[in-house]
User: Which sequence fits this backbone?
């Protein structure tokens, strides 16, 4: 019976109910989008690192996992290549061009040997120093095909479009990238392929002895490091957004329920005259809030599919995942802010004087 | 059934004491239909609120079925409203978002009488609904009902938990003659056929005549 009262109350002010639920939902979407993009982008990086076919990676001293620039002398590539069990070592140069995009300079033959080759959708390998290979993730939204020119600060000609999944969205010949960006004889990363993966530990130990202070990871290690947990700033940022979501949920429900209590003064008086205890009145408000919060959480989850679509269309290089394991958290976050917001209006309602509420004017 | 002795109620409004009741003495027998009249501000509603457990008295005693209301805690007064007393007010009686049937049902729910339903009480309530003549209107929301119909639903709701006492504060104050007559006839029928004890406040001498007895209040006292 009390359920019917709650449903009718919510239906009585459909716009307020809808807006409250949507406002809660927006908070939920915000969290799910942030988490989804974090996981999507990191997962994408991990996948593309595996796509190189390398077993071991060497980064310059002092570099961190996800800062891809930062350079070391090209000589390191040769040194690494001479180690026992190393089948192939190839250097790459990562040049950021803003907007979270970057061009990776590669030695195409070595990279093909290591990764099993790029798969061309159209066009083909570099033929000149201004040539650029882009993957379909980048090419499709920018409507690029081979032969097109592309202005990325410097002018490039697209020599080919390849399937995505290997290392980068954009490749240039490493020498010309070094020239154009004044990084002659510099590389950002050395990818190492071994004669046998079983030798990974041994090779890493040997490399660490030779290249003191350099960062040396196995690809498995590197992939496991690429997670939200290993990026403190991202974790903190996520927590800030969760905190904001709880606060906004609190404010939305507080205002919504407060106005509901004010306009229901008389009804609360009637319920009290019928013998409703303060707890009964409180429970009506809390259950209404519960419905709002759950509806908001569901709306938020549905809207996160919308933001995924938006990301896919407008920022395809930052893929967003639907992270199901966060759905329960989304509901909990929506509930906690909302229920806290309902406490004060609920107390006000439950303490309201029935006689004053029933004053006849 | 009701024994009121030297009942006083003082409201404090800012710095000023408002003596709403200045020593009320009144006895009401079980099964009686009592009309209470008196000028505005004489304390009629205040007396009802105390009897119904909506407000505590300042001093004196008021007993219903031998239980003194003055010594009750808030929780006990809540229980009193649930079980012993039914209220009918002048207007704004019904919850606007619920149908008439649900308005009655929620009173049952509040009293916690949804689970265990006793057939005898149910049969009696059926009889009340018959007397009220609102059976065909029960699925409507209050705004679709006439004032008289709303008031009859309110009476049905006040009686759904078989209270010992029905307190009606100007139940016909907002009704036209025809609807007033219907509601008053109904109250008298409830009293005659079911022995319901009723206290009714009214400004109208004709309405008061429906009761067995009329008491007059003046300046916070019963002057008979
Ligand atoms: N909550 C309150 N706070 C302060 N004073 C009150 C309150 N309720 C009633 N009073 C005062 O107590 C006195 C008695 O009021 P009460 O409502 O009992 O009169 P009444 O006989 O029912 O009048 P009416 O016929 O107009 O309904 C009045 O002077 C009124 O102003
Ligand atoms: Mg009054």
Assistant:
């Amino acid at each position: 019976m009390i359920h019917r009262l709650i449903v009718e109350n919510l239906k009585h002010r459909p716009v307020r109910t809808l807006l409250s639920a949507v406002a809660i939902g927006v908070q939920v979407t915000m969290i799910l989008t942030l988490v989804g993009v974090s996981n999507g982008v990191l997962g994408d990086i991990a996948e593309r690192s595996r796509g190189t076919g390398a077993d071991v990676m060497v980064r310059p001293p002092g570099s961190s996992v996800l800062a891809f620039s930062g350079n070391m002398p090209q000589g390191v590539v040769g040194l690494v290549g001479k180690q026992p069990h190393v089948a192939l070592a190839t250097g790459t140069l990562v040049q950021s061009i803003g907007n979270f995009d970057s061009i990776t300079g590669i030695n195409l033959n070595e990279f093909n040997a290591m990764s099993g080759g790029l798969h061309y959708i159209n066009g083909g390998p570099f033929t000149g120093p201004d040539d650029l290979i882009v993957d379909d993730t980048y090419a499709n939204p920018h409507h690029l095909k081979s032969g097109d020119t592309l202005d990325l600060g410097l002018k490039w000609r697209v020599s080919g479009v390849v399937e995505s999944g290997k290392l980068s969205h954009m490749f240039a010949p490493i020498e010309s990238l070094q020239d154009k960006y004044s990084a002659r004889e510099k590389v950002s990363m050395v990818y190492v392929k071994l004669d046998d993966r079983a030798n990974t530990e041994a090779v890493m130990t040997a490399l660490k002895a030779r290249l003191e202070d350099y960062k040396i990871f196995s690809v498995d290690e590197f992939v496991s490091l690429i997670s939200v947990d290993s990026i403190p700033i991202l974790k903190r940022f996520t927590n800030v957004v969760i905190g904001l979501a709880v606060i906004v949920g609190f404010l939305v429900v507080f205002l919504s329920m407060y106005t509901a209590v004010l306009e229901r003064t008389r009804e609360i008086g009637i319920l009290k005259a019928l013998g409703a205890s303060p707890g009964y009145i409180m429970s009506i408000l809390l259950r209404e809030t519960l419905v709002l919060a759950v509806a908001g959480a569901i709306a938020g989850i549905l809207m996160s599919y919308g933001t995924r679509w938006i990301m896919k269309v407008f920022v395809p290089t930052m893929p967003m995942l639907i992270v199901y394991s966060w759905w329960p958290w989304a509901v909990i976050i929506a509930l906690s802010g909302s229920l806290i917001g309902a406490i004060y209006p609920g107390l006000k309602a439950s303490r309201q004087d029935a006689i004053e509420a029933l004053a006849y004017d | 059934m009701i024994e009121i002795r030297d009942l006083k109620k003082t409201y404090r409004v800012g710095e000023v004491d408002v003596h709403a009741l200045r020593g009320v003495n009144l006895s009401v027998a079980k099964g009686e239909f009592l009309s209470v009249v008196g000028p505005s501000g004489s304390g009629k509603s205040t007396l009802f609120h105390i009897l119904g457990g909506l407000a505590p008295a300042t001093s004196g005693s008021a007993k219903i079925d031998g239980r003194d209301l003055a010594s009750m805690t808030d929780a006990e007064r809540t229980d009193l409203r649930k079980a012993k007393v039914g209220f009918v007010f002048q207007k704004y009686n019904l919850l606007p978002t619920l149908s008439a049937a649900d308005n009655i049902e929620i009173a049952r729910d509040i009293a916690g009488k949804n689970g265990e339903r006793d057939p005898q009480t149910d049969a009696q309530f059926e009889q009340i609904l018959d007397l009220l003549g609102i059976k065909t209107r029960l699925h409507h929301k209050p705004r679709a009902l006439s004032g008289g119909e709303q008031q009859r639903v309110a009476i049905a709701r006040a009686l759904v938990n078989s209270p010992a006492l029905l307190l009606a504060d100007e139940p016909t104050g907002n009704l036209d003659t025809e609807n007033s007559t219907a509601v008053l006839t109904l109250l008298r029928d409830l009293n005659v056929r079911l022995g319901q004890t009723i206290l009714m406040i009214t400004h109208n001498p004709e309405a008061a005549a429906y009761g067995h007895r009329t008491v007059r209040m003046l300046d916070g006292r019963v002057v008979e």
Residues A 355; B 11, 13, 18, 20, 38, 40-46 surround adenosine-5'-triphosphate (ligand 1) (CB under 6 Å). Chain B is about 35% helix and 25% strand.
